[in-house]
Amino acid sequence: MSKMSHINVIEKYEEHRVAIHNLLSSILSCFADDKMFEKSDEELAEFLNSLCSYYPFVSLLYLLDAKGKQICMNVPGSQFKHHPKIGLDADRSNRPYYLAAMKADGVAVTEPYLSSVRRELCLSASMKVNNDDSTIKGVVVLDIDLSSMLAILTGDSRRIHFEPYFKAMYTLIVLGLFTVALMLLYAAGVECLDVIYAMMTPEKRLEMPLGVVIYLTLSLAIFDLGKTTLEEEVLLYKDVLRHSSTRRTITRFIAVIIIAVSIESLLMIFKFALKGDGEHIIEAVWIIIAVASLLVSLGIYVYLGSKAEGMLLNNRDKQKAG
Fold it and tell me: Where does the record locate the signal sequence feature (predicted)?
């Protein structure tokens, strides 16, 4: 469970675009007025802190004059105090949020872009404020941390705080699996040395080195299981609210089990065939049939899951179009 990539953030933004724009429009239109341009930086900071108690995803607040020149320092939100307080007298007249605000009658919301301060995806909500004589007094701009906003809107903000503990636990489990794989590799190496010694000693009877293959196969299966766990639960981001992520994880784990059990069943067939113990081959055949059934069931699960998700996406697109 890693941090969302920019692609993941943009995909989730597209899913909740209408809700995000409506929320930002309601937030900014409720407090943006001409009195804000008379407040000092300290008063703006106090005001923003009270706003962030309800909306912690607000990262910056700043004011522009009618020509797009910033007339105050960047005021960071309570969750983003590390932001440098800069920006005074900066020319923002060519920025999309200023241009959109000048054309709009209400709140304008930009598309996601990389913040020059945090290098993270953010949105800017802007709104022009008029004087009593209908001339433009300035523009109020809010920068929004998009990842934080999506986490709050989807109810995922609490889980994020536990992610380091989840990652630590999965890491310990993976280290244990890798340790077992190394032990099996060591056992396979010892078995190989015994086989080589038997080949070099004429008086010793050479047996088929099936133990080496078994150890190596088990080591491969356990290592692959640990690798899958490490990638799925520690290194890669997994959206627990989306069924495709769960389907991907289940598919990878079941695939590892199918490969390991298939190899073991083949080894059983070879072992019984070489020893002439044909009466036990049927047991290995039943295992192969079980693996085939598991593979068919996995294919049906993947097909039905992808088809169901496609139907959900189509319904969502129809609702947006309507």
Answer: none
On whether both 229 and 243 belong to a single domain, the answer is yes
User: How far is it, in rounded angstroms, from Cα 234 to Cα 177?
Assistant: 15
Do residues 234 and 167 make contact, with C-beta atoms less than 8 angstroms apart? yes
Q: How many separate domains does the chain show?
A: 2
* 165 Cα distance to chain centroid: 16
Shared domain for 146 and 175, answered yes or no, is no
**pLDDT tens per residue across span 83-105:** 767 778 888 889 999 999 998 88
3 state SS of 204 = coil
pLDDT range class, residue 2, cuts 50, 70, 90: very low
* Shared-domain flag, residues 121 and 164: no
Separation between Cα atoms, residue 146 and residue 13, nearest integer Å = 8
188 and 248: one domain? Answer: yes
Residue 199 domain flag = yes
- Tens digits of residue pLDDT in 140-155: 999 998 888 888 887 7
Q: Does residue 13 contact residue 112 with C-beta atoms inside 8 Å?
A: yes
Range of the domain at 163: 158-321
CA dihedral 311→314→316→319, nearest 10 degrees, is: -130
